[in-house]
Amino acid sequence: MTTEELGKTFGPRLRKLSPGLQYKDSIGAAVINPVWLGSARFAVVFQVDERSRRLVQVLLTFNAGTPPFGSYAQARQALEATLGPPGTSERKTDYSSDIPWFRVVDRWTFPTTTVVLTYFEPDFEDTSWNKSLTVRYFPTRPNEPAK
Question: C-alpha angle 11/12/15, rounded to 5°?
Fold first, then answer.
């Protein structure tokens, strides 16, 4: 899907970004804000390949301040209602460093699409640290080139 096709699909809700947001190997070319997943508010960033300008990932980022763990739980519940239970769930903590952290990663893998929900809390005692809550949709395997 190209940015032009995204525009036709989402209409006036889609806002093209110029210049785009630079990611490691893609550009955030367009955004929809806000989008609700359960009662958690997200911004949706459509990331495209720099060369082909085709969609490579859809990234939802929590954008209602610092995400509490309850927002993760609500987003997971909303995803489970549509996708079923995640295929894998990983919960990790590290109390050995100066700054303890907690991370939850839930993954749904389908033949064409993978969905990953991630909640990260870098410090249990200090709420000023940046917590994050994201959902990523991306191809499970490389797409066939457009013909």
Answer: 105
pLDDT at 127 over 90: no
pLDDT in tens, 54-81: 899 999 999 877 888 889 999 999 999 9
Cβ proximity of 53 and 29 under 8 Å: yes
Q: Cα(14)–Cα(33) distance, rounded to whole angstroms?
A: 8
Of all helices (H) and strands (E), which one includes residue 31?
strand 26-37
H helices of the chain, where? Answer: 3-10, 69-83
Terminal CA-CA length for the chain: 12
Q: Which amino acid is at 20?
A: G
The pTM assigned to this predicted structure is 0.85
Could you tell me if 43 and 61 are in contact, meaning their C-beta atoms sit under 8 angstroms apart? yes
The helix (run of H) or strand (run of E) holding residue 137 is: strand 132-139
Domain coordinates in residue numbering, the chain: 3-139
